[in-house]
Amino acid sequence: MKNVIFFTLLCCVIGHVSYSQTPPDSILPVRGFCIGAPSPAGLNEFIQFIDQELAPRKVNTLVLRIDYNYQYESHPEFRTGNALTKADIKKVVAVCKKNHIRLIPQFNLLGHQSWAGEVNALLVKYPQFDETPWVKMPEKYVWPNPDGLYCKSYCPLAPGLHKVVFDIIDELCDVFETTAFHAGMDEVFYIGEEKCPRCGGRDKAELFAGEVSTLRNHLAEKGRQLWIWGDRLLDGKTTGLGMWEASMNNTYRAIDLIPKDVMICDWHYDRPEKTPAYFAIKGLNIITCPWRKPAFAQQQLKDMIEFRNAATPEMKDRYQGMMQTVWSNAESFMDEYYGRKVPNDTLMSTSRCFRVMYKDINVALGK
């Protein structure tokens, strides 16, 4: 941690830099936007949003949280009646290609296999993959609860698991025509549980790192890159970040065990933390991800640019940029963005954060 503190202090002495003659990708290589995929009914407006709102702001990366909102061919048991088709995805691919936007699908792996009182399709169709089959879903979900249930996880050592997971990854990457895949892997509370006959008693950091490496290696076989959220790689107790934005179950030691070419999406929503320096010192590429507090996003952007300017040549390109996160589907966000729905707090909303952050990004880019 002493290295992190020193590096952070070093970044505070950066002087004024002129960006007007500098290529955008050398200032912020990744200028991203992450959002839940639209329903088929909202697809056309979302495509228009990409064309008319993302592209003019110089967004060059779109992470689309697809999960089960797709009519899978490799595993039709995951299909739902109101999901996007291959033809729908190809429309998104086309508008992204037109605007030179890298399109990346996200499918939550390891954790987030349930939400509130509902188990997601992977564990419904393959209950043998469940890390905690003895934890039953409540009729009414509350937190905290005696089972420590936030979201279910799959057991990374379950026989047959990766055949299914790899099918999903490959199908999504093929239809999205992409060179990257976002596996989520955030907020993993259930891992290496004592009662699990496969992974119980094993080192939680090694289990987490093993799953990261397994997914990364599969993607690398076809020249694709793994992206994940970074919270499980931070020590929640030492940093004071706690159990949500960091790990309190010892997975944080996996930061020294995972491949260095995994892209880390570092999200912090309640403080503009300086953790990108930590990830970069560990040899990992890092993107900072705000949510709904514009002032924090502005500070995180300033930090990211200053980190890049202050860094040694070996460190500079590990600071990859910024990505606005949206934790709703596309329709809900666009309702707020276009004024059809008023947020509870107009000064602290996702759409306002997006507008403010990208205004500052384009000032930095000299646009």
Can you tell me about this structure?
This protein is an alpha/beta fold and 367 residues long. The chain has one domain: TIM Barrel (Alpha-Beta Barrel). 37% of the residues lie in helices and 15% in strands. The protein is built from 14 helices and ten strands. Helix 10 links the parallel strand 8 (263-267) and strand 9 (285-289). It is globular. The model is unreliable at 1-20 (pLDDT under 50).
User: What is the H-and-E element order?
Assistant: HHEHEHEEEHHEHEHHEHEHHEHH
**Residue-averaged pLDDT:** 94
The percentage of residues in β strands lies in: 5-15%
Compute the separation of the termini in Å.
37 Å
- In CATH, the topology is named TIM Barrel
Shape assignment = globular
Strand order of the largest sheet: 1-2-3-6-7-8-9-10
- CATH superfamily grouping: Glycosidases
Q: What class would the helix/strand composition place it in?
A: alpha/beta
Attribute tags:
single chain; 367 residues; alpha/beta; TIM Barrel; 8-stranded parallel barrel; 14 helices; 37% helix; globular; disordered N terminus
Task: Spell out the blueprint of helices and strands.
Blueprint: H1 2-11, H2 24-27, E1 30-36, H3 43-54, E2 61-65, H4 86-98, E3 102-109, E4 114-115, E5 118-119, H5 121-125, H6 161-176, E6 180-184, H7 204-220, E7 225-229, H8 236-239, H9 242-245, E8 263-267, H10 276-281, E9 285-289, H11 294-310, H12 313-316, E10 319-329, H13 330-337, H14 350-364
Parallel strand pairs: 1-2, 1-10, 2-3, 3-6, 6-7, 7-8, 8-9, 9-10
Antiparallel strand pairs: 4-5
Helix pairs in contact: 3-4, 11-14
